[in-house]
Amino acid sequence: MVDRVYNFSPGPATLPVEVLEQASKDVVNFKETGIGLIEMSHRSKEFMAVADETEALLRELMEIPDNYKVLFLQGGASSQFFMIPMNLLGDGKKATYLNTGTWSKKAIKEAKLFGDIDVAFSSEETSFNRVPAVDEYNVADDSEFLYFVSNNTIYGTQFPGFPNTDKMLVSDMSSDILSRKIDVTKFGLIFAGAQKNMGPAGVTVVIIREDLLERTPENTPTMLCYKTHADKGSMFNTPPCFAIYAVGEVLKWLKKQGGVAKMEEINKEKAGLLYQAIDSTDFYRGHAETASRSLMNVTFNLPTPELETEFIAKAAEIGLNGLKGHRSIGGCRASIYNAFPREGVVKLVEFMKAFEASHTD
Ligand SMILES: *Cc1c(COP(=O)(O)O)cnc(C)c1O
Question: What CATH code is assigned to 18-256?
């Protein structure tokens, strides 16, 4: 087997190696049943136990109150862009959105198909280099909810705290769920594609307050009603069995690390190493404004695009992979989610110093 490299990929992203090793065994023969995990009926008692445990662990780690449902859906985080307004905005009700990057822009486009959408803030003119301060926008009184993307994966910005409003919050936490402690009770709905910070692609977790299940208009297709999945414990149809299992294994790993509060502490320290390296020189420039910096995706530029290309290639030669920034902003991006090892960050910082030294006189 090839040695594993440090994989800075934004998603699908690095998973704990012990999870991958366990999964590779369970896929062939799950718990001595003689049947591989992905060959097993989703209604078997073995798989039902897996799904139950995954949900229970998520509830425990995120402290999800009992009046919230946890759903395991397909269609990616992107399907939530339309499912949310379809279910919650009924006959053209209003919602407020904060436009902080590609993922919010896509969500706004879909929401406009169903509701009256008020975009209360946008940082598009400055290449989405920041998120708003709490007093920088207004939420209309007749808005049903305030929608925001907690961590902007592409631009490397993150809400340092959550919007200070009495309105129900709805948030895309695809790239920072479980990375820090949050108060779920402020939210009507939280969703996250698993493939950034929680597991493999294939499952999207939706955490929804129970009373919202009743808002869906009657002419909504069955598969697109949250209630359909809530009523059947995400087993209305065949769920993404492998992805749910793997999320469960990641959650077990996370619990062993000390839980979400511990992760938050580790993430702050880890990202701090990189930001310190960026701030200590003019050779590297961070894309995000300091107050909006993400602990998950660290975006930066070098003096020229040519140097960036060389930097990314040379890094890959020493096992630092996937540092190319998203095509929409270029530059470099180090995605350092929960499962990304600290040693990889240290190695990147060393490489940054050495690269700079060999390119300046
Ligand atoms: C990756 C990502 C998405 C899209 O996820 P898919 O599962 O590919 O649809 C949405 N929002 C955020 C914040 C993301 O990082």
Answer: 3.40.640.10
